[in-house]
Amino acid sequence: MPVGTARTCMNGLNALSGVGLLTVPYALSEGGWVSLALLAAVAAACWYTGILLCRCMDADDAIRTYPDIGERAFGRTGRLLVSAFTYVELYLVATGFLILEGDNLDKLFPGARVTLGTVSLAGKRLFVVLVALVVAPTTWLRSLGVLAYVSATGVFASVVIVLSVLWAAAVDGVGFSGRGTTTPLRIAGLPTALGLYIFCYGGHPMFPTLYTSMKRKSQFPKVYPYTHAHNTMLFISRDFFLSVSQPICKDASDMLPAMAVLGYLMYGDGVLSQVTLNLPSARLSSKVAIYTTLLNPVTKYALVVTPIAAAVEERIRGAAGKGARAVSVAVRTLLVLSTVAVALALPFFADLMALVGSMLNVAVCMLLPCACYVRIFGAPSMSSVEAVAIGGILVLGSLVAVTGTYYSLMKIIRELV
Asked: pTM for this one?
């Protein structure tokens, strides 16, 4: 595989895998065993819409970003709509990274407190701020080629997390007898489960950016199936012993055991929003899993905020002049600071990610790709199978958007009150 293609593969894998691993056991506990079929449906739908985005990009050489696709399909209104959904989604995902870091660090170091003059920070709030100080410099890297090396660390971290959780269950005595593991279906929890499942496949806004960063763009259709298959199998594959010796971007079907099933069998209905928060703190495997979890968002944060920063910088490029580099650093630093503020105000990881999945990921990863594709190429050019597939995705996405957004908002409002 050429170096440029391998770098794009790493960025794509890093964009998709990792943080979602921690939430799928909780999603399974919310929806029940039958919801695993919906996970497969979501995976298939998002894989297909990713292909639709590739086709839309090939329709016009001027297309370089996801908003460009929206403009090509629906004009100025399409660009504004796609931009609003994609950038808010990426922004909240970056915020979720900080919340996740704060939760896990607080588990490792309970009671931590720092006081500077009249300002005092403790617990999760302290760690959110500290993590922001760590990730800020990574956002100053503008080259996706350089970020690929950071992404490679994130992909490796995802593998280590799953193996550590498995070790905690099989060797360190946690076991697989979590209470509530026989529940087949929970209708009331399905909206939350679906929102979190779709959140796991929220890499679409970054695909055009990855595509345009490649020197050999013809290789992108080969890279995308690798990254998507890896992500799916990271959640649902069983043959993990075969995976240790397999390359990251090949033979993804043998990659890792089912994280959703693994975490749910371990803790049942008591599984928390991040399965690492359930792990016994004294065990070495638990510490490895938690420390590796802390590494994962650090490697992804810059990749997620780069499209937002690039859009802002594009707007003010004319005014920047020779100070373009300083403006870029300032924009990216302010983005980090603003996500810190939101993370401190809404420290509800699972509910926030379910809202992102239901309201934003559904639109960006399912509804908008279908709508843009139909608009650009026209319904008459589609085969009957293609029309049925797109229609099914639109129906599924619309149902999740309405029900999932409502339930997630209600949960967040209850937490605030």
From this structure: 0.78
